[in-house]
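Why do we care about 3D structure at all? Because function follows from shape, and shape follows, mostly, from sequence. That is the central idea of this module. The next example makes it concrete: a single protein chain, its amino acid sequence, and then its structure expressed as tokens.
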Amino acid sequence: MHMWGGIESTVNRVGNTYHTQLDRSGHDTREDDLDRCAALGIRAMRYPVLWERTAPNSPHDMDWRWLDQRLGKLQHLNMEVIAGLLHHGSGPHYTSLVHPDFATQFAQYAGCVAQRYPWINRYTPINEPLTTARFSGLYGLWYPHGLDERTFKNALVNQCRATVLGMRAIRHINPSAQLVQTEDLGKTYSTPTMAYQADFNNEMRWLAWDLLFGRVNRSHPLWAWLINCCMATEAELMWFTDNPCPPDLIGVNHYITSERFLDEHLAQYPQRFHGGNGRQAYADIEAARCLATPTPGLAPLLNEVWARYGTPLAITEVHIDASREDQLRWLHSIWTTCTAAKGQGIEIEAVTAWALFGSFDWNCLLTQCHGYYEEGAFDVRGAQVRQTAIATLVRQLASGQPADHPVLSQPGWWWRADRFFCQPTKATQLTSPNSVSNNTVALPPPRPVLICGATGSLGRAFARLCQRRGLAFVLMSRQDMDIANPQSVFNALNQLRPWAVINAAGYVRVDEAESDADRCFRENTLGPEVLATACAQRDIALVIFSSDLVFGGDSAQPYVETDLPGPVNIYGRSKAEAEAKVVAAHPMPLIVRSSAFFGPWDCHNFVSTTLDALALGKPLRVANDIVVSPTYVPDLVNATLDLLIDGATGIWHLTSGGALTWAQLATKAAEVANRDVSLIHPCSNASFQRPARRPAYSALASHRGFMMPTLDNAFERFQADQVLS
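And the structure:
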């Protein structure tokens, strides 16, 4: 079984606006991306040869320059190309999914592609035609925004007809060209009352493939619905039986949202899942989020598609919108399931690591541009493309090596007890005979993450989010392990055998440090050095936290990771010296600098105390001449955990962005919380007569990558997170 790769390349239209993933991920301008993909050991690439980009203005005016460069490089890298000509799109502006000339115009373009690149032997002319027809013709999300069965049918038939004519044009040039036809494959489960709708949904999922195989005739289960509800004519349906174009390879795209559960008891489910079919109201929810017993997952679906068509398969998209460890677990579980299915005689050629460079705004089905990013094998948010742990796993699987990341020893969220959005529902008939179960993979005992700092807000935040993310952890106080005592550290590491240590402990009282330097340096400098030495001896990953106060404040722009420290107080010196000693003692530590913490889970941070005082009507004096970068603690913790799992090392600046004075931060918090801003009185820092000098400017930026949501986004979630806590 091979490892393939894919790049999210959707060009969908909403109204008159086109949303283009290749531009948003930056792949459009980065030719060296292909070298990165080749280095993963990928055998083939699902690659965009998109109609909208090549002939955007006229079917007779095609610009091949970008494709000539990229496809030529893939050829040079000896990577097979599976050419995708339309990916969830409606075509260039001069056509659409329901245009009468759509299929013939598309076929003309397909023939031109084959003529220019006769060496390409595999094509996915149109990706997921059924899914695209649903989104564009039935749900109204994408152009032409249809909300009825007839528009759905026109979009589906047009795409399938275009596929047949497109492959005909391609094979006129290259008779050996193969059709790799992709579609989302899931399953709908239900209560007994909703079984009729579940049965309909489970028949509908095959419709695009059935049309191409020429199987939609008068005996097809959906024939009457297509004729009576979708207003299809016998002639347009029977055209496919007379002109079949069976796929040479069936491409299965399977997501955690592909499996649904229908229940007429609406009150048991959140409002956002309520819907209906015009005949009956019901909840339509991801099965994983409501069923007490997990479904068998992909394994029985592979049996179904193999039994139905007897055609070789490939998993053509594997991706999940989740935290990094669950992204790894999802890919690994799909690979393991396919390996087992292949052992049972199902012909599975490959598994495709999808969205190698991530995707944007799929959480709103590409209807808006919010900037919501889901990482892939590479993270493109920084000045340089950064490899994630997914890339390492892809490389291991592609080369036949064992997958060895410590997080794989725990189950993904879709198997965990905290996965539910509602009261768990019991359902029957979740298993299929002779199927390979996704849930039978034996997991070794997990090695934990050791978190130092049980009494601090940061340590507790790490424990909370490790619990939420399904990461085994041990939270230790100073009484459990004194990080500045080598014997204490030795004993704890030998007993717990962690794969990583996160030091969230330390001396945090900036002003008191001026008269308590020995204790400050013991906790902030000696302790991290002892940890670094012990972790290096055992090959344990290490995370330590530093501060914006390592800088002197003489900059006119935010400090980046390569700027030299120049602390102006004892606390800053203790952190700067800790960085140097840790780097000397450990070959690859992860050092996170941050600033101005606030979060929902403690009441002592600046934002919380400010809002509490304003709620009581108390006036506040706040410095207006000290500039910092506020940091939302939940985002800081999640970003740090992702970097840790990715194996990132060196110094990283992680903040919520921006450069604000403390007075501006207080004002912003008050405005978001609807507090009385007039109670905030800006003043100079000198008027507080604090023992420790503060840098006038210690805002942080990063040249390595912006890992965290914006400050505005953090404030949007702050109050909601307080309620949830």
